[in-house]
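> example.struct
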């Protein structure tokens, strides 16, 4: 069975799809719910989160591309993104347009190490032209392990990602309880 066939699909009265996984964080859910009017949702305890949406598919590609020199090209990003697609991190537009998507991630890749967006996401649902997500980003570089939680949304246009807006919170193992999806070493 595919992840989507295994996932619990709940269709709300406004026609959006929700896929739930275990470990829902109340604060992130509140953040997502404040961003868009959403009714209360049933919780499926052990259902995997779907990976059939374009944002999940893009990050699956991205994870493989990070390990493949030369894979972060304008043409490859164009498979998932509109020509003018933007990335906004913590309120600041950091990427605008396919050329910047390619050059930014080529530079990130050149720094070495391993970076991974954990897919399936902890939480993902679609409402209208948006895909909302809550996920883990983990990395290993120069002997250091880092982990952060990210929440936000992608806006779609003509079947492609027109923008991604994320709020990211780094986790400090000395101060925070690490998410189980974080690498310990």
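> example.seq
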């Amino acid at each position: 069975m595919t992840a989507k066939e295994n996932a619990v699909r709940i269709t709300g009265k406004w026609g959006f799809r929700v896929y739930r996984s275990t470990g829902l964080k109340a604060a992130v859910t509140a953040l997502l719910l404040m961003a868009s009017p959403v009714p209360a949702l049933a919780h499926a305890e052990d259902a995997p989160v779907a990976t059939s949406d374009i944002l999940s598919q893009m990050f699956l590609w991205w994870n493989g591309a990070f390990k493949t020199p030369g894979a972060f090209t304008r043409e490859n990003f164009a498979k998932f993104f509109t020509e003018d697609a933007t990335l906004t991190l913590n309120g600041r537009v950091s990427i605008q347009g396919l050329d910047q998507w390619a050059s930014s991630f080529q530079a990130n890749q050149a720094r070495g190490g391993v970076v991974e967006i954990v897919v399936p996401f902890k939480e993902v649902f679609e409402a209208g032209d948006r895909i909302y997500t809550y996920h883990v980003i983990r990395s290993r570089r120069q002997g250091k392990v880092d982990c952060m939680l990210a929440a936000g949304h992608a806006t779609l246009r003509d079947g492609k990602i027109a923008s991604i807006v994320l709020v990211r919170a780094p986790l400090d193992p000395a101060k925070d309880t690490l998410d189980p999806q974080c690498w310990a070493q």
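> remarks
The CA atoms of residues 118 and 136 lie 5 Å apart.
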